[in-house]
């Protein structure tokens, strides 16, 4: 067994199947960890927001002063039930930082934007703007985390 000097380790290419990557630059690993951590923190904060939103939808269904589902038009009543379910499932996926959680959240947020534009006075345009900013931020963080991961793999 030969021990390598530091300069020899840095020049040696990493072993493709090795459990420990030799010769990996710490800066690349730190950049990957930084973007990945920021993405996970963003997803967890987003999960908390979506849990609150889902619980607010369930409060409309389960604890109304008068029957909200009968008072609302059929399209809005269906939207309330859809978002009561989709928001909570998306929040669980976001909290776990899974790819399906991000995809389901993107579907739910896009659906909110679509419903706000299709059904007048259904969802506030402020919430639509918030959804658009959150979607853009999610794509930005995901792109940078993926790019840092690709640079780390090289």
Architecture overview:
This protein has 154 residues and is mainly α. The chain has one domain. It is elongated. 17% of the residues are buried. The model has no long low-confidence stretch (mean pLDDT 82).
Structure summarized in a few sentences:
With 154 residues, this protein is mainly α. It has six helices and no strands. It is elongated, with a radius of gyration of 22 Å.
Question: Could you list some keywords that capture this structure?
Answer:
single chain; 154 residues; mainly alpha
Based on CA atoms alone, the radius of gyration comes out at: 22 Å
Helix content: over 70%
Largest sheet report:
none
Shape annotation = elongated
| Strand residue percentage | under 5%
What's the structural domain tally?
1
Give the terminus-to-terminus CA distance: 27 Å
Number of strands: 0
What is the chain-wise order of helices and strands? HHHHHH
Annotation field: number of helices: 6
The residue ranges in which pLDDT falls below 50 over 5 or more consecutive positions are none
Q: Quickly give the structural class.
A: mainly alpha
Which whole number gives the mean pLDDT?
Answer: 82
Topology of this protein?
Elements lengths: L5 H6 L14 H37 L5 H4 L2 H22 L3 H20 L6 H29 L1
Helix pairs in contact: 2-4, 2-6, 4-5, 5-6
């Amino acid at each position: 067994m030969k021990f390598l000097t530091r300069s020899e380790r840095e020049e040696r290419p990493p072993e493709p199947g090795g459990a420990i990557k030799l010769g990996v630059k710490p800066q690349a690993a730190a950049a990957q960890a930084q973007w990945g951590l920021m993405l996970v923190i963003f997803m967890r904060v987003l999960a908390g927001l979506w849990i609150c939103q889902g619980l607010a939808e369930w409060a409309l269904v389960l604890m109304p002063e008068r029957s909200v589902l009968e008072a609302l038009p059929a399209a809005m009543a269906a939207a309330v039930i859809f978002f009561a379910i989709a928001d909570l499932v998306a929040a669980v996926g976001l909290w776990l930082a899974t790819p399906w959680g991000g995809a389901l959240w993107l579907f739910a947020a896009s659906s909110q934007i679509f419903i706000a534009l299709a059904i007048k006075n259904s969802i506030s345009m402020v919430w639509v703007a918030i959804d658009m900013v959150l979607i853009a931020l999610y794509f930005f963080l995901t792109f940078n985390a993926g790019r840092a991961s690709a640079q780390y793999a090289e």
